[in-house]
């Protein structure tokens, strides 16, 4: 990532009721130069990533288990990192098993496909302390002057 203009972090508990606070925190950092449609897509990706951490990565963990969100804003990109304490998960292998178009009545997978569609770069890495980091990166299109 290019040097960010802004990097901020927020830590929440593994509770879906925290989603409103997460989105309020996120929305205070919307760059005025970014079209609202693009920001709303990132907001949706953030909500999906947080929800997945609560429902899947932390399903067997106490609700006090922290989830940290890092937001980095640069002139050329926006990066979100969602840190969880769950078991390892191979995101890329799972994405390869999902159909390109997932029916609405499907039991799961829509959220992962959505993340892959919204972001320019998507990764889920195991980190040394035993947790994981979901990386969502969106490259910002510059408009000609």
Automatic annotation (TrEMBL):
Matches recorded under InterPro entries: Anti-sigma-factor_SerPK, HATPase_C_sf, HATPase_dom
Pfam families noted in UniProt: HATPase_c_2 (PF13581)
Domain of life: Bacteria
The keyword Ribonucleoprotein is assigned to this record: no
Boundaries of every Histidine kinase/HSP90-like ATPase domain copy: 13-138
Single GO MF descriptor: ATP binding
Alphabetized UniProt keyword annotations: ATP-binding, Kinase, Nucleotide-binding, Serine/threonine-protein kinase, Transferase
SUPFAM superfamilies recorded: ATPase domain of HSP90 chaperone/DNA topoisomerase II/histidine kinase (SSF55874)
PANTHER family: ANTI-SIGMA-F FACTOR RSBW, ANTI-SIGMA-F FACTOR RSBW-RELATED
Protein name, per record: ATP-binding protein
């Amino acid at each position: 990532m290019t040097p960010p203009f802004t990097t901020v972090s927020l830590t929440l508990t593994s509770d879906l009721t925290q989603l409103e606070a997460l989105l309020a925190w996120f929305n205070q950092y919307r760059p005025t130069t970014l079209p609202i449609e693009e920001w709303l897509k990132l907001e949706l990706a953030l909500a999906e990533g947080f929800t997945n951490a609560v429902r899947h990565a932390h399903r067997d963990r106490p609700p006090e288990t922290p989830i940290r969100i890092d937001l980095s804003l640069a002139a050329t990109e926006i990066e979100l990192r969602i840190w969880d304490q769950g078991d390892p998960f191979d995101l890329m292998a799972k994405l390869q098993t999902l159909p390109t178009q997932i029916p609405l009545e499907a039991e799961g997978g829509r959220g992962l496909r959505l993340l892959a569609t919204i972001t320019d770069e998507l990764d889920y890495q195991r980190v040394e302390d035993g947790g994981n980091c979901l990386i969502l990166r969106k490259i910002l299109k510059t408009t000609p002057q």
